[in-house]
Amino acid sequence: MCNQFKLPNLQKINNYLIQGLGLPLTTPNFTFDEKDIFPGQTAPVLLYQKNQLQLQAKTWGYPSPVDHKKRIFNARIERFYDAKPSMWDQSFARQRCIIIASEFFEYSKESYQTPKGKYHEKYRFFDPNHPLTLIAGIYDQDNFSMVTTSPNKIMRPIHDRMPLTISPDELRKWLFQNFTDLVDRSSFLLESAKLAHKN
After folding, report:
1. The pLDDT value given to residue 114
2. Which among 56, 68, 59 has a CA at the least distance from the CA of 38?
3. Is 181 strand, coil or helix?
4. What is the mean pLDDT of residues 101-109?
5. Is residue 115 predicted with pLDDT exceeding 90?
6. Distance between CA atoms of residues 122 and 190, nearest Å
7. Which of 43, 68, 91, 170 could crosslink 166 through cysteines, CB 3.0-4.6 Å?
8. How far apart are CA 142 and CA 169, in angstroms?
9. What is the pLDDT of residue 198?
10. Each residue of 33-89: pLDDT tens digit?
């Protein structure tokens, strides 16, 4: 369950989206610096609204329908295909966005015992073929959630889910088109690195 990603600053995002990918991005009326983003915090996401491709600041996590003090910040892509309705259906159908990160983080499934207690090893993941990593997201009003899918061979030894990462040439498909063939990320290349444990 991914609960942390690193947000690039506005200049890096603009350079990548506008100059690198040639996207007609409108200029946002806010700025931001590079920082780590956790659930409950605000970050810009890329979406198409009012005939404009734009960055909008939204809070990571939908309010839980059971407890509004809690947030649900990962949405399983498989839920959209279930016959049983879910809280994500409207967002998957019409309110898709893209989370832009320099990297995201995940803890391993296994725990280790140290003199100070148990800990899980932490890993960073990123798209080695592009300057920034694009992650599928959905939104509703002022909130967004990260979309997850089954892990590929890079993620599987560490965790049983992974963010649905997409390549730049898949960006329009996620935002506007049928996204069924994006569900399987087994061939998506990620790189990972284990972070040093702080004693």
Report:
1. 72
2. 59
3. helix
4. 92
5. no
6. 16
7. 170
8. 27
9. 61
10. 999 999 999 999 999 998 999 999 999 999 998 888 899 999 999 999 998 889 999
Q: Report the C-alpha gap between 19 and 113 in whole angstroms.
A: 48
3-state helix vs strand vs coil in the chain, percent to 5: 15, 40, 40
The kind and range of the H/E element at 110 are: strand 103-114
Tokens 């409108």, located at residue: 26
Instruction: Give which of 25, 17, 19, 92 is closest to 52, Cα–Cα.
Output: 25
Asked whether 62 and 72 are in contact (CB, 8 A), the reply is yes
Instruction: Write down the pLDDT at residue 1.
Output: 74
Phi (first) and psi of residue 57, to 5 degrees = -80, 125
**Cα end-to-end distance, the chain, whole Å:** 24
Q: Do residues 2 and 137 touch, judged by C-beta distance below 8 A? A: no
